Amino acid sequence: MRVLLCGLFASLLFSQAPGPQLPDIKYARRAPDQPLPFSHKQHAGTNGTPCKQCHPMPDPGDFMELPATSVCMGCHTAIKTDSPHIKALTAAHAESRKIEWKPVYKIPDYVFFNHKKHNALAGVNCESCHGPVKEREVMRREKEISMQACMDCHRQMQAKNDCRFCHDPR
Ligand code: HEC
Ligand code: HEC
Ligand code: HEC
Ligand code: HEC
Ligand code: HEC
After folding, report:
1. Which residues are within 8 A (CB) of 80 and not within 5 positions of it... i.e. 6 or more apart?
2. Which of 5, 13, 19, 46 is deepest in the core (most CB within 10 A)?
3. pLDDT tens, the chain, 170 aa long
């Protein structure tokens, strides 16, 4: 019984302890002004659409993509068609125009980063580096993506930290 209780307690503790993740950013950043009021809370939360349906990760997995307007039109040919925002989306789709989303997370081009390798790590998921996206009405940078933050997680997970591992000599 005692062992069982201890086990239960430990599993409770562990299920609450976050896995390795980037630290929260110290000074809140303003969300960039996006061309449309897109809400992850509505789409990934309420609708329950999986991240990868809108963010494919083509090989070798260096970048995640943003959704093409055709993904949106799977629903918005019928949903909320009277909204001026959906009218703008529909017009962009009809004219094969991309929506010019502003980047939220961005590291300089000289830094190597691979989504696929990181997402494959035990205990690491999108939330580890981007926060509770499904609860967010608007996306803003809420996790630190500084060199220090990357190196701290590498230290914690015993990954390499020599300078050339992440970028060419500066
Ligand atoms: C699975 C279906 C689905 C897909 C796919 C989808 N949406 Fe939506 N979207 C919804 C629903 C449901 C709402 C909420 C409608 C309401 O408030 O009645 C919504 C609301 C919106 C709104 C708010 C409209 C307003 O004026 O209130 C915007 C903007 C929007 N979606 C943009 C997009 C974009 C951009 C994409 C593609 C990246 C997309 N949606 C993909 C279902 C979808
Ligand atoms: C219905 C489509 C849709 C779904 C589902 C969706 N996203 Fe997004 N995502 C978008 C769009 C559109 C943008 C660009 C607008 C914005 O930043 O809000 C975006 C932006 C982002 C960004 C910021 C990208 C940058 O420029 O730095 C991150 C991070 C992100 N999504 C993570 C997620 C995660 C994690 C999930 C699953 C929990 C998810 N998304 C589910 C459509 C989607
Ligand atoms: C280990 C941390 C980490 C994890 C885990 C992670 N991301 Fe990212 N994400 C980043 C960093 C760093 C960037 C900026 C990359 C750049 O500028 O090249 C980024 C950028 C993005 C972007 C903008 C497009 C791009 O590739 O630059 C999207 C969309 C995104 N992430 C979605 C996701 C989704 C969805 C998941 C889960 C499947 C996820 N991320 C998991 C760290 C992470
Ligand atoms: C959640 C902890 C964590 C975070 C956060 C993280 N890393 Fe990593 N990273 C790792 C681990 C663990 C490995 C080793 C993976 C392996 O050996 O397959 C790794 C591997 C790498 C690699 C080598 C990938 C390859 O192609 O072999 C690079 C480059 C890298 N990380 C850069 C970064 C940068 C830049 C950031 C910050 C924007 C970052 N990492 C944030 C844990 C993390
Ligand atoms: C785990 C990945 C990682 C490792 C290891 C790493 N860096 Fe970085 N480095 C980064 C990232 C990410 C940035 C971009 C930070 C930003 O723009 O906020 C960066 C930026 C820099 C810059 C530019 C800073 C600036 O303000 O222009 C210099 C210089 C630098 N690194 C030197 C080093 C040296 C020296 C080492 C070895 C001791 C090292 N880095 C190891 C990830 C790493």
Report:
1. 86
2. 19
3. 444 444 444 444 444 556 899 999 988 778 999 999 999 999 999 999 999 999 999 999 888 999 999 999 999 999 999 999 999 999 999 999 999 999 999 999 999 999 999 999 999 999 999 999 999 999 999 999 999 999 999 999 999 999 999 998 76
CA of 151 relative to ligand 5 center, distance in Å: 9
Question: Mutation test of ligand 2: which of 40, 73, 79 has the most ligand atoms closer than 8 Å to its C-beta?
Answer: 40
- Tell me the CA–centroid distance for residue 134 and ligand 1, in Å: 14
Ligand 1: residues within 6 Å at CB?
36-38, 42-43, 47, 49, 54, 67, 71-72, 74-76, 79-80, 83, 85-86, 89
Angle subtended by helix axes 69-76 and 84-94, to nearest 10: 130
pTM of this structure: 0.94
